[in-house]
Structures are given as structure tokens and as C-alpha cells.
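Weekly modeling sync, notes
Attendees: S.R. (lead), two postdocs, one rotation student

Agenda item 3: backlog of single-chain predictions. S.R. asked that every request posted to the team notebook include the full sequence so nobody has to chase files. The rotation student volunteered to paste the first one in as an example of the format we agreed on. Action items at the bottom.

Example entry:
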Amino acid sequence: MDYSALTTKQNYVCTIEGRISSLTIYKEQGYAASYDAEIARMRFALADVIANMSEGELDALRAIQNRVLTPAEKAAEATRMRKQMEENRDKPSI
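Predicted structure, as returned to the notebook:
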């Protein structure tokens, strides 16, 4: 998914949903019970961001997230990612 086309709030939604998913996985694996408070905090933040989004912005995000790529689009995405990885190959890691 090309995140450069998303608005700031749409990026926040993606980031928060990813964080909630990660915390839920850790909690289910039994790493720490203290994740409940962080999950609740993230859910509150998600609800807050969604409440402040303009009309249709969330629907537009879901349409982007649930879009099914055609074989040609998949090939173009793979080519783009391969080119990007080759460009970054010799760059030092952070």
C-alpha cells in the first residue's frame, strides 16, 4: 500500500491499528499483562482520530486498504519494491 497518498489522519489510523494488533499478539502470547492499559489507550486514541476525521475520509482509507490489486498492478508493485531495495542495498543502516 502506498502510504504517501494518505492524509495525516489516515496515516495515524494505520499506525494505531498496527500498534493495537502488535500489542494484542504480545498479550495473547502471554508476554505481559500490562498491555491491557496500552491497548485501551490505543483504542481511545483510534476513536479520537476517527471522530476528528472529515466525512468520507475513513471510508476512503478502508477502500484503499481493502482494494484488490490486478496482476498487472501486483507486478508493477513488485518491480517498484525491487528497484527501491536495490537502491538501498549499499546505503548504511541507521
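Discussion: group reviewed the output briefly. The longest helix spans residues 8-28.
Action items: rotation student to repeat for the remaining queue; S.R. to check formatting next week.
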